[in-house]
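Q: Okay, next protein. This is DUF6431 domain-containing protein from Cohnella yongneupensis. I've checked the sequence twice, so it should be correct. Can you predict the 3D structure?
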Amino acid sequence: MVGSRKRVWYQSSGDRATLIIRRLYCKACAKIHHELPDLLVPYKRFDAESLEGALSGIERTDIAADESTLARWKSWFVAFAVYAAGALQSISLRYHLPVARSSTRHYSALQSLGRFVGDAPGWLSRVVRPVANSNLWMTDPFCLSVRDLLK
């Protein structure tokens, strides 16, 4: 451990909270990594539960985010789901992990991820952790532009 830093995040109620995040040095890659708990998604200010609630398609009124924020989350998720499904497929092949098969070929963004992590509450954290821990997390939000995917 090489120290810690504060990380601000917002709960679905809109309350602001602060966590102390450990900074860890990796001898293998000679980089410093931040240890994020499951309740956070990298580069997002709201907790994973809030994001999951907004993305699940179920109408939620208990998330204290404005409509433009919810629209940005949904736009981000359309691109992220495609990328994350590919990353999870790569991880499953690399480690010989079973993946649920489906008779349908066309998946929604949520269904494509559900094949890997299920659809029970906490699915977003189950997507984020292996992608981030495998060093497959995209740090540049412009790399996941919806515009580029539609070309």
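A: Here is a summary of the prediction. The helical segments are 48-55, 67-94, 109-117, 123-133, 146-149. The chain is about 40% helix and 15% strand.
Q: Noted. On to the next one.
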